[in-house]
Amino acid sequence: MDLERKIRDELSRMAQEAPVTSMPPTTRRRIARRRVVLGVSGFLGVLLIGATGALGVGALLDDHNGDRSTISGIPTMATVSCRPQGGVEMPSDVAAQPDGVHLRFEGSPGMEFAQASAHPDGTRLEVTGFLAKEPTEGGDPSGGGAART
Amino acid sequence: MWGESPIAEDRDGYADLYARHVPGAVTVAYLMTGDRQVAEDLAQEAFVKIMGRFADRRPPDAFSSYLRKTVINLSKSHHRKEKVRRAHANGSVPADHSPPPEPPDDELRPLLLRLPHLQRAAIVLRFYEDMSESDSARLLDCSEGAVRSAVFRGMQTLRQQLGAE
Q1: Model-level pTM?
Q2: Where residue B6 falls among pLDDT bands split at 50, 70, 90?
Q3: What pLDDT score was predicted for residue A113?
Q4: I need a surface site. Which of A87, A132, B126, B142 has the fewest CB within 10 A?
């Protein structure tokens, strides 16, 4: 007789010796207890995740509040077009710096960071300095410019 | 009182589920451990464990394999605990790779029960449950290649120890 047959026979013999079982009377209580433990730990987990999330959102809002200050009534989250001296107009997203005076420009191609301040007439932004990643054609990488919202 | 009557109504369907699935799980547990009492305990523990995770609200087709998987995992934990307990009883540290002592006779059963967990489980699932390699792999959380290799190595060990072929 080959080994596979021997193994099958032996396992079948063993299976016949396996005990016959019926559900013990405490099973329902054990299941209920496990569900309570699972429910409580799940609830605590959700609470923890919620609290962490709330803290994160709070921190985000705090950060955002800093950005939301206005400069002379000019909306501080806006897309403006700015023209470096002699260069082409480039759109850029503007956000107010927490100091409430300067604006941060981001997103324009070739332009990494720029600062601007509000023009006294309250309708224009005056760019005080560009820091260009690369000089733009016809433009001055470190020049100034004006932007209008 | 709060105690449950053995003839309480099976409103939640637990008794029905138990009667349908646990006897098979007890058999698998017995094939894995060779101990009737332990087999019964492991199967009941597995049932409580997966019912505690609301398994009765999941697709009923998956219940049986889920129960078998839990039984096999519990039998692995049982063997690990037993190994440590025996080692402490003998006052020695368990050695993972030390060869098992020679069996007292050439019967197949003690040799089967001495096989490492994965090899024994793979052999039980293949030769008793007639499971495919892919189903066994899913149940044992390993690749089909690992199942094939475990069966091969298990049979090789048995063949060597039986002096057959």
Answers
A1: 0.60
A2: very low
A3: 46
A4: B142
Taking the Cβ of residue A17 and every Cβ of chain B, the question of whether any pair is shorter than 8 Å is answered with yes
More confident: A119 or B44: B44
Q: Which among A30-39, B2-11, B26-35, B78-87 has the top mean pLDDT? A: B26-35
State the nearest Cα–Cα gap between B126 and chain A, in angstroms: 9
Write the pLDDT tens digit of every residue in B75-123. Answer: 999 988 888 888 887 765 555 544 444 444 458 889 999 899 999 999 9
Chain B residues touching residue A20 (CB < 8 angstroms): 23
Indicate if the alpha-carbon torsion angle B58, A28, A38, B74 is positive or negative.
negative
CB contact under 8 A, B18 and A26: no
Residue with the bigger pLDDT between B11 and A31: it is: A31
Q: Does B122 touch chain A (CB under 8 A)?
A: no
Report H helices in chain A: 3-17, 27-67
Distance CA A71, CA A125 (A): 9
Q: What residue type is assigned to position B50 of the chain?
A: I
B contact residues 74-103, partner A, Cβ 8 Å cutoff:
none
* Alpha carbon distances (Å) from B83 to B28, B79, B95, B126: 20, 6, 10, 26
Nearest CA in chain A to B130: A8
> Is residue B108 within 8 Å of A5, Cβ to Cβ?
no
Taking alpha carbons only, the member of B118, B115, B80 closest to residue B99 is B115
Residues 6+ apart with CB under 8 A from A67: A76, A77, A95, A96, A97, A98
Angle at A125 between CA A119 and CA A127, to 5 degrees: 105
For residue A85 the two structure tokens come to 């001296």
